[in-house]
Write a structure and sequence with these properties.
- This protein has helices spanning 78-94, 98-113, 121-132, 135-153, 160-178, 204-208, 213-228, 232-240, 242-251, 256-269, 285-291, 295-301, 322-329, and strands spanning 7-14, 22-28, 32-36, 42-47, 51-53, 61-65, 72-75, 181-185, 193-195, 199-203.
- Helix 3 packs across helix 9, helix 5 (160-178) packs across helix 13 (322-329) and helix 8 packs across helix 10 (256-269).
- A hairpin with a 3-residue loop joins strand 2 and strand 3 (32-36).
- By secondary structure, the chain is an alpha+beta fold.
- A 7-stranded antiparallel sheet has the order 4-3-2-1-7-6-5, with helices on both faces. A 3-stranded mixed sheet has the order 8-10-9, sandwiched between helices.
- The longest helix has 19 residues, at 135-153.
- Helices cover 48% and strands 15% of the residues.
- It folds into 2 domains: 2-94, PH-domain like (Roll); 135-329, no CATH class.
- It has 13 helices and 10 strands.
């Protein structure tokens, strides 16, 4: 199905029953669908095997993630509709032979890199993958992990007012080019985590646990700062193993089955970051200063000493309005 790789079209997306329909850009990958604003900010990520046609034979074609009757994507582009159907059917047809496909991809890559690679293969493959994987593929991998996490916690909350408030907060903290896509999951998980592709996952408890938007914004800044000191894709590859890493190098994809354990681990281990993740508040002063957020409220809420340079953080502007904070706290309502 290489004919359809990275196909894009304009569609109309409704996040929930009764919500206003929005014009979006639909990007079709090999196993995922990304729905984004024209600016490129992701709004939703679907796994193609879970997508169903809601009105077979009718136009415009209506698709939705299996089990979520409220979220609907409408398409009238014939090529994109054909791609949806053919890629979904191809994935389904391939399911009975996963062992053969995995073995074939791994053997092909191993033959290409040579026998001498065996002694240092794991580290070399990991470094090569991190250097070569483009941002679009990182976003697909992050979207797949988010979908796997959602299977355990429930799908990401998408009340329109709350989604809009998150977009404004991300733009306020990081600007239009560097802002992360933020998703709120309704179920239990330890704390905020960052996925490949600059996707920040927030547990609903992080909103319910404070009445101060400065504390919430501070946790976003702290979590993003810790993640950007490393590479979330590296953690995913370490969990997936050498075979999955070689598949990624050879085919440009990381199968969802290899990401499942990492998704589960993130749900269990996210709590390690909830108290600052072992990072001293003083080390985070530059990140808070760059985002224009005072570090004091967050440090006090986390039981940490306020750094002597705390006055250097925060630019005196509001992190978010009262109405946005109220909408954000209700993002999982309904």
């Amino acid at each position: 199905m290489r004919r359809f790789e990275r196909l894009e079209a304009i569609g109309h997306w409704r996040p929930a029953p009764g919500a206003e329909q929005a014009e979006v850009v639909v990007s079709l990958g090999e196993a995922t669908v990304m729905i984004a604003r024209a600016s490129g900010l992701p709004l939703a990520h679907w796994s193609l095997p879970a997508v169903i046609r809601l009105n077979p034979g009718q136009m415009p074609a209506r698709f939705g993630p299996d089990g979520d009757a409220g979220e609907v994507l409408e398409l009238d582009d014939p090529l994109m509709i054909e791609a949806f159907e053919k890629v979904r059917h191809a994935i389904a047809a391939a399911q009975p032979r996963p062992r053969f496909l995995r073995r074939g991809a791994v053997l092909a890559v191993l033959g290409a890199v040579g026998v001498g690679l065996v002694l240092w293969l794991p580290g070399a493959a990991r470094r090569q993958a991190l250097a070569l994987v483009p941002e679009a593929t990182r976003q697909e991998i992050g979207a797949t992990i988010l979908g796997l996490m959602g299977r355990e916690t429930g799908a990401a909350c998408r009340a329109p007012g709350g989604v809009a408030a998150l977009e404004r907060l991300a733009a306020r903290l990081y600007g239009p080019d560097m802002r992360p896509a933020i998703a709120v999951l309704p179920g239990d998980m330890g704390g905020m985590v960052v996925l490949p592709g600059n996707i920040l996952v927030v547990p609903r408890a992080a909103l319910a646990g404070t009445d101060d938007p400065l504390v919430f914004a501070g946790e976003v800044v702290a979590t993003m700062a810790r993640a950007r000191a490393g590479d979330p894709l590296a953690d995913a590859l370490d969990s997936a193993g050498i075979r999955a890493t070689l598949t990624l190098i050879g085919t440009g994809t990381l199968p969802a089955r290899d990401l499942g354990p990492h998704a589960t681990a993130l749900l269990r281990q996210g709590g390690a970051d909830g108290d600052g993740g072992g990072t001293d508040a003083a080390a985070l002063v530059p990140a808070f200063a760059a985002s224009g957020v005072p570090i004091g409220p967050w440090a006090l809420a986390r039981g940490q000493d306020i750094p002597a340079r705390a006055a250097e953080t925060g630019d005196g502007t509001t992190v978010m309005t009262d109405s946005d904070w109220i909408s954000l706290q209700a993002i999982c309502a309904g």
